[in-house]
Amino acid sequence: MNINSKEIFKTLNPNRVWLPVLIGLGIVVYLFISDPDFTAEKLKLVFDAELWPLLLALLVILIRDTGYVYRIKVLTNHDLTWVSSIYVIILWEFASAVTPSIVGGTTIVVFVLMKEGIKFGRALAYVMLTAILDNLFFLVMSPLALLYSKEELFPNAEDMQVQLGNSLQVLSLLSYGLIALYTLVMTYALLIRPRGFKWLLLKIGNISFLKRWRHHLNNHGDEVILASKQLRGKRGGYWTTVLLFTFLIWISRYAVLNCLVTAFAELSWSDHLLIFCRHLMMWIVMLVSPTPGSSGTAEFFFNQFFYEFLGDYTIVTNILWRMLTYYPYLLLGAIFLPRWIRRVFFNKKEKEQKSATPPVEMLK
Fold first, then answer.
1. CA-to-CA distance for 364 and 359, rounded, in angstroms?
2. pLDDT tens digits along 12-24
3. Integer angstrom CA distances of residue 276 from 27, 139, 153, 154, 314
4. Is residue 107 part of a domain?
5. What is the mean pLDDT of residues 289-311?
6. Confidence bin at 276 (pLDDT 50/70/90)
7. Is the pLDDT of residue 161 over 60?
8. In a domain, 350, yes or no
9. Which of 4, 43, 27 is nearest to 317 (CA)?
10. How many angstroms separate the first and last alpha carbons of the chain?
11. d(C-alpha 127, C-alpha 110), whole Å
């Protein structure tokens, strides 16, 4: 893994927030224009929202983010302070918001953890393990969602604002298959046989048209072996805690939307479960989005999945959902990134220089 500071900061650039914002707003404008029943009065429907579900949504977001912060502390054996953990999560969310979901921000997060005092092997192990845990949630919950909702898991053609045929089912199946394959390979490499994984990479590197990357594949195999060593001997309590917090984090993430829909529509418990299941499917589709933070993709598919429940309130709920769950992390990243840079690059250097300078008494 090439940890290049210049390349990292090209990605962690506050100026990059404008692209996903413009894409997201562009799709929202398109949805407005393409709606034959749209009038300017529909924007005022946001004032019809009940207050208590909105407040509950904010509470659920706080629970989710607290879960993220605590999980990274547990993953790192509490070597990170609370302040360091908060910085890591904010920058992690920011990196996810400005890079395509299909690409991910593994290198960026490893870099951030290293600057917070975690050695490379451990940082890589924690990021890889987090990816496995998060994907495990999708792999477990998606079949359960299908079993519960069956034919209602995907919206009917008449409930869609844009006719997509079987595209949603195909995209979901494709994304689920990619997630399953990726998780299987990552689990095998990190937790089962890292040396076998390196052997496989070297075999791939022997293919004639891939020989130019053999050196990189060899290095990647070494990195995985190093990362795997960091997780050996972890006790059951460690795995139980990180698994429980992973499920808490993702359930909270999805529950935010349930709160927002409740602000505009009366729902039964079965409706809540169906919305949760559809949100899960929509997120799986978003994972293969080529846009930064799934901007545009999220706004477009939101209308397809939830118009049935929200009707005229769909677009205003769509905007509220992204305002609460996506755009704040762009803003927080732009605010906290300069502070983090001062903290890990300049403040630490000043402290090291002061500690290296002998007291005046010793110089006499």
1. 9
2. 777 777 888 888 8
3. 23, 15, 10, 12, 16
4. yes
5. 86
6. very high
7. no
8. no
9. 43
10. 48
11. 7
pLDDT at 165: 56
Question: Model pTM?
Answer: 0.87
Residue 164, helix vs strand vs coil: coil
3-state secondary structure of 61: helix
Band (pLDDT 50/70/90 cuts) for residue 92 is: very high
Long-range CB pairs of 246-249, under 8 A, 24+ apart, other chains included:
246/71, 246/133, 246/134, 246/136, 246/137, 247/137, 248/63, 248/64, 248/67, 249/64, 249/67, 249/68, 249/71
In a domain, 185, yes or no: no
Tokens linked to 114: 């290293």
What pLDDT score was predicted for residue 252?
A: 96
* pLDDT at residue 363, as a whole number: 42
Q: Which two tokens stand for residue 19?
A: 């692209």
Q: How far out from the chain centre does Cα 145 lie? A: 20
Helix, strand, coil % (nearest 5) of the chain?
Answer: 80, 0, 20
**Domain span at residue 251?**
14-153+196-344
Is 27 contained in some domain?
yes
- Count of CA atoms in the C-beta half-sphere (13 A) of 228: 19
Residue with tokens 């998606």: 142
319 CB neighbour count, 10 Å cutoff: 19
The two structure tokens encoding residue 22: 């413009």
- Does residue 160 have a pLDDT over 60? no
Q: Return all residues near 3 (Cβ < 8 A) that are at least 6 apart.
A: 107, 110, 111, 114, 120
Number of domains in the chain: 1
Q: What is the DSSP string of 310-363?
A: HGGGHHHHHHHHHHHHTHHHHHHHHHHHHHHHIIIIIIHHHHHHHHHSPPHHHH
Q: What angle, rounded to 10 degrees, do the helices at 82-98 and 51-75 form?
A: 110
Assigned token pair, 330: 């762009």
pLDDT tier at 362 (50, 70, 90 boundaries)? very low
pLDDT in tens, 29-85: 777 777 666 666 666 777 778 899 999 999 999 999 999 999 999 999 999 999 999
Query: Distance (Å, rounded) from C-alpha 316 to C-alpha 332?
Result: 23
Instruction: Return d(Cα 252, Cα 317) in angstroms, integer.
Output: 18
